[in-house]
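FAQ

Q: What does a record look like?
A: Structure on top, sequence underneath. For example:
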């Protein structure tokens, strides 16, 4: 420092603090901040007057335009915050706003200190101000400033907990962040959401946020939520709590032992979802909906629909208070409506209003209670269930207190209907069980006498309910309040009550937690606080953001082998018995060590020249090295060392293009020549090679090198490593050109060795979201190439991309039509991992989602609901679940779903049957071959729908069958179809449609012999009275004849009755069958004496002669069919004459 600067700084020290901190010379300002930080560190009294003087200075200090000065200003602020107490939080707003505006886009160290300052403001009990500043910060147009803001909210919540940092404001900020164009912001917002789940629970977060998310984000979060577990506990305390803790520690520990022994473990903090949401006004939309006219309508359906609109509006989590008196009076009348559906809907509306308004609905609830209790006499399950739920909701929401409704309960328990008495007491028991001890102590004097009186009721259910209330009271406040009352009971009832109370008490004791000391928890909290300098980012919560070196423990091959043997079990092939896990992360190795170990392979002069600063010498050296490598007989032993050498000298920072090209060629030669190329070598080279791909001068050899890597270690490993490199690289060409190479790699190797989910996610989240048009175009080409191998199913994973991109993708699909097995890979992988090859062989490529968690008991129950609208909504919900899973699902949990859907195939509402058929078809397409095992023979019920007289129903059935045959093949469906063809209930139109459908699909069967069981029911249809059925059956049987041959068909039809056989033979022109029939004719004619032609004419049928019936049948057959009836007529007459019929 010059003499002038020293003099300037010395003079400046005489100035007031505000002038020093705003001095025009940055060195003076810097020095002032250093002095201020030192002075604050020396202050020990948080009430020191100087701290109040310093507070207003930081607003401008942290906004300094000079980065080093700004950093020192933050140091001073941190020292000030540590020295002060909660009184200085008055300065928090202006300082936080200044930090948000100026510090979050600075140097990494500056950002880190800014975040520490925010957390100290939270510690100083200014969390509301902190969150207000964060609301401004997350709206910053620069994404670089948004991520630190999300991270600091994540850290504050993680360290202080949801009691200190209110989740409500954070929940409001998140929806906008989910749609942020920057992927880092989206990743951080997902991490913050997961942290919220740890504090307030998964369900509240889902219900508040999921409806505001895109389907893709929702799916990603669903997957991440599975990893959220454990109870969140704060690791840091606000300043006032720290002071209390110090005071408690200062108190002599005279009674400490007893309290620590009975201390219970920390329970999870309960957050009421009601407090997290904003109230919604429902009165205004209710007025507009025509509610008041609807409830007065004469038609019950109009009244029900009007109340249903109220129920829907009131289902919001929090309702804005208002004048609901008139609404309550109307609902009171509707609860007693003569139509059950209207009464149920009104009851549910009351329950929703109670949940949404809570204490604001207290007065109305008390007016409604007598009517609801009276209505308990209704025996219909739907009404009884609605009443129970509403009454319980009124109590849980705080609308009704038992102390306030004693008279209403007294009247209800004296009702002449026993059901009202018992259900009222059940409700009282529920209310007591869900109340606290203090409340029960106040009300037991009133309710115990009521219950004692009910113990003498003539109805057993009422007596049992009364016992339940007394048990609930005893469970809450003990036996003392019941002692006098028990004396009045006889021995039998006294024993029963004592047993019930005893069992309830045992249950409470058995479910209690073991007392533990709280000292351990406090210690751990202090330890965490001390080590809080290592702060996590919000994105670190995501499973995909875990560092790669987390898998390092797998280096030890011994335990890995033994574990594999244990898990794989006995009957495994040798190839998969004990695969050795390859260590893919390269260890550090110095250049000297590499040179020493390559001493016998590479000349010392060559390595020296590779280090030369003259590019011609380096070029000459790499040429010599290339010759040496090509002449090596045992290249495998030195492959990794040679690659390490080239990565070090000349290295990937080489500027000369010719040298670069030669280096890449040597590495390509090594990768394509050695028997086993280590994955560590690929990891060493990938970053450098991917950068060379971005350069047009080295692009061709670099792409060739990547292809050689794929042949050596498999494209799956290369792709997986490239995703991360390409995402994070600053050069956009690394991404765009790298994706173009991926297009050629997919074309060369196919998709069998790739994790399709990862590549699709990469395309969606990185490629298609890129601001560079070249990258988006490359990604579209890559997806088009995937379509060539995977097929149209890939479209389901990309349904939520922008419309413009969708149209571009459709055009690319047309250029690359699905070829499937007809598109064999051009290149093969020399050495595949056993695990990867196995999984590739057993999987059909695209991932399938487990939907078992979405097939809830409520959904299955609603599929069988008496309300057709609810049934329809449930069927549509099934379709939506499959749609959200991109129409590719696992069979897990679908057995119960198919059972529920089977019931809907017999629904009285035909529209629901058609909707069910559509859903079954969708499920079959989404599940693939596994649908056969999960469906439990539902196909038989589907085929019954073919007999419906409505054409639309039959078309829906055939559409479902189309989906089924695409999923499982026709071979598996034959047993069910054979039964349907022989079922007369199928109707002529149904059988005709089914034969036409079979004719289209039978030629595609993998094993034609599987179609033979369908011949006999088809043969019977050749004699059907409907000419259309006969024609369709004949067409189908001819198709079977083409694929199976005459011999197989004739053999299968030999057991048919002779008349039927004759018609089949004529229609199908079966020569072998003709011969069999002519033989049988000869046998018949020679074995009996036929009358003369004249005698045959003179035979007259008698009144009871069955031959007359045969004659009639023959004449009818002649009218219905002209071909082949000669055989039937011949057999009829011969059999008639012989007396067989």
């Amino acid at each position: 420092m010059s003499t002038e600067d020293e003099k300037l700084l010395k003079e400046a020290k005489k100035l007031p603090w505000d002038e020093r901190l705003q001095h025009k010379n940055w060195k003076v300002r810097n020095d002032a901040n250093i002095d201020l930080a030192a002075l604050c560190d020396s202050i020990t009294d948080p009430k020191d007057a100087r701290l109040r003087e310093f507070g207003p200075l930081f607003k401008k200090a942290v906004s300094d335009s000079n980065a080093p000065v700004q950093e020192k200003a933050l140091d001073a602020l941190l020292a000030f915050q540590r020295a002060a107490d909660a009184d200085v939080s008055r300065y928090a707003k202006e300082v936080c706003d200044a930090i948000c505006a100026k510090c979050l886009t600075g140097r990494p160290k500056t950002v880190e200190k800014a975040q520490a300052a925010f957390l100290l403001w939270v510690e100083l009990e200014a969390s509301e101000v902190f969150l207000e500043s964060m609301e401004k910060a997350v709206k910053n147009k620069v994404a670089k400033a948004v991520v630190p803001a999300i991270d600091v909210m994540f850290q504050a919540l993680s360290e202080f907990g949801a009691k200190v940092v209110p989740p409500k404001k954070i929940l409001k900020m998140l929806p906008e962040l989910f749609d942020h164009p920057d992927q880092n912001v989206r990743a951080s917002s997902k991490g913050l959401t997961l942290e919220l789940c740890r504090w307030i629970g998964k369900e509240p977060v889902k219900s508040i946020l999921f409806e505001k998310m895109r389907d893709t984000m929702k799916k990603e979060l669903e997957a991440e939520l599975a990893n959220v577990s454990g109870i969140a506990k704060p690791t840091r305390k606000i300043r006032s709590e720290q002071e209390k803790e110090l005071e408690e520690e200062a108190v002599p520990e005279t009674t400490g032992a007893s309290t620590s022994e009975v201390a219970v473990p920390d329970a999870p903090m309960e957050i009421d979802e009601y407090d997290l949401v904003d109230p919604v006004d429902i009165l205004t939309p209710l007025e507009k909906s025509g509610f008041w006219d609807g409830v007065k309508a004469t038609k019950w359906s109009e009244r029900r629909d009007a109340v249903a609109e109220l129920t829907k509006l009131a289902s919001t989590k929090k309702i804005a208070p208002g004048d609901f008196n008139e609404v309550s009076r109307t609902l009171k009348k509707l609860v007693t409506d003569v139509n059950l559906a209207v009464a149920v809907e009104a009851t549910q509306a009351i329950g929703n209003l109670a949940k949404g308004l809570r204490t604001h609905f207290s007065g109305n609830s008390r007016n409604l209670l007598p009517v609801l209790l009276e209505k308990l006499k209704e025996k219909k399950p739907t009404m009884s269930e609605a009443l129970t739920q509403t009454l319980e909701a009124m109590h849980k929401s705080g609308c009704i207190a038992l102390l306030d409704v004693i008279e209403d309960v007294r009247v209800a328990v004296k009702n002449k209907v026993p059901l009202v008495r018992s259900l009222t007491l059940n409700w009282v028991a529920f209310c007591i069980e869900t109340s606290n001890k203090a409340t029960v102590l106040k009300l037991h004097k009133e309710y115990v006498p009521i219950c004692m009186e009910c113990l003498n009721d003539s109805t057993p259910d009422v007596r049992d309910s009364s016992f339940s209330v007394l048990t609930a009271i005893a469970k809450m406040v003990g036996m003392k309040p019941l002692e006098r009352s028990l004396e009045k009971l006889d021995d039998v009832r006294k024993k029963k009550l004592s047993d019930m109370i005893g069992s309830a008490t045992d249950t409470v004791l058995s479910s209690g937690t073991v007392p533990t000391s709280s000292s351990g928890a406090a210690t751990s909290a202090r330890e965490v606080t001390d080590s809080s300098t290592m702060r996590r980012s919000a994105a670190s919560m995501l499973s995909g953001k875990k560092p790669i070196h987390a898998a390092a423990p797998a280096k030890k091959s011994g335990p890995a082998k033994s574990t594999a043997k244990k898990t794989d079990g006995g009957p495994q092939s040798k190839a998969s018995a004990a695969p050795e896990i390859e260590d893919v992360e390269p260890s550090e190795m110095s250049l000297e060590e590499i040179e020493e170990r390559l001493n016998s392979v590479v000349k010392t002069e060559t390595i020296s020249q590779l280090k030369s600063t003259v590019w011609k010498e380096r070029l000459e050296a790499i040429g010599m090295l290339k010759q040496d490598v090509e002449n090596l007989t045992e290249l495998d032993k030195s492959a990794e060392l040679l690659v390490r050498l080239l990565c070090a000298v000349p290295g990937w920072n080489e500027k000369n293009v010719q040298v670069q090209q030669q280096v890449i060629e040597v590495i390509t030669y090594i990768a394509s020549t050695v028997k086993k190329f280590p994955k560590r070598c690929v990891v060493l080279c990938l970053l450098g090679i991917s950068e060379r791909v971005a350069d047009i001068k080295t692009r061709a050899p670099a792409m060739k090198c990547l292809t050689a890597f794929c042949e050596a270690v498999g494209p799956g490993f290369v792709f997986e490593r490239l995703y991360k490199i390409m995402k994070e690289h600053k050069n956009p060409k690394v991404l765009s050109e790298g994706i173009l190479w991926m297009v050629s790699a997919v074309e060369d190797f196919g998709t069998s060795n790739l994790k399709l989910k990862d590549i699709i996610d990469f395309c969606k989240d990185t490629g298609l979201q890129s601001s560079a048009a070249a990258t988006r175009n490359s990604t579209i080409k890559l997806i088009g190439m995937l379509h060539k191998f995977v097929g149209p199913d890939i479209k389901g994973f990309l349904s939520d991309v922008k419309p413009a991109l969708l149209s571009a993708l459709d055009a690319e699909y047309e250029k690359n039509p699905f070829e499937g097995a007809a598109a064999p890979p051009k290149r093969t992988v020399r050495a595949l991992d056993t695990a990867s090859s196995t999984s590739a062989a057993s999987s059909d490529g695209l991932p399938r989602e487990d939907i078992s968690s979405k097939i809830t008991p409520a959904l299955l129950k609603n599929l069988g609901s008496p309300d057709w609208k609810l049934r329809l909504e449930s069927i549509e919900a099934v379709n939506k679940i499959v749609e959200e899973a991109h129409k590719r699902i696992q069979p897990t949990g679908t057995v119960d779903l198919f059972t529920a859907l089977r019931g809907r195939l017999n629904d009285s509402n035909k529209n629901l049957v058609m909707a069910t058929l559509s859903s079954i078809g969708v499920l079959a397409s989404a599940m693939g071959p596994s649908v056969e095992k999960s469906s439990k023979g539902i196909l038989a019920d589907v085929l019954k729908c073919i007999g419906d007289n409505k054409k639309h129903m039959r078309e829906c059935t055939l559409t479902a069958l189309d989906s089924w045959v695409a999923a499982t093949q026709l071979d598996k469906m034959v047993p069910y179809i054979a039964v349907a063809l022989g079922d007369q209930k199928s109707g002529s139109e149904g059988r005709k449609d089914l034969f036409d459908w079979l004719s289209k699909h039978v030629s595609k069967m993998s094993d034609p012999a599987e179609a033979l069981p369908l011949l006999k029911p088809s043969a019977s249809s050749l004699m059907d009275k409907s000419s259309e059925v006969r024609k369709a059956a004949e067409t189908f049987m001819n198709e079977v004849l083409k694929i199976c041959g005459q011999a197989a068909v004739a053999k299968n039809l030999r057991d048919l009755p002779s008349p039927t056989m004759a018609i089949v033979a004529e229609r199908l022109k079966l020569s072998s069958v003709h011969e069999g029939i002519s033989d049988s004719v000869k046998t018949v004619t020679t074995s009996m004496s036929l009358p003369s032609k004249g005698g045959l004419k003179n035979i007259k049928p008698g009144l009871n002669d069955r031959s007359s019936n045969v004659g009639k049948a023959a004449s009818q057959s002649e009218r219905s069919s002209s071909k082949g009836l000669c055989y039937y007529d011949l057999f009829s007459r011969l059999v008639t004459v012989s007396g067989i019929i």
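Q: Is there anything notable about this one?
A: Residues 491-510 form the longest helix (20 residues).
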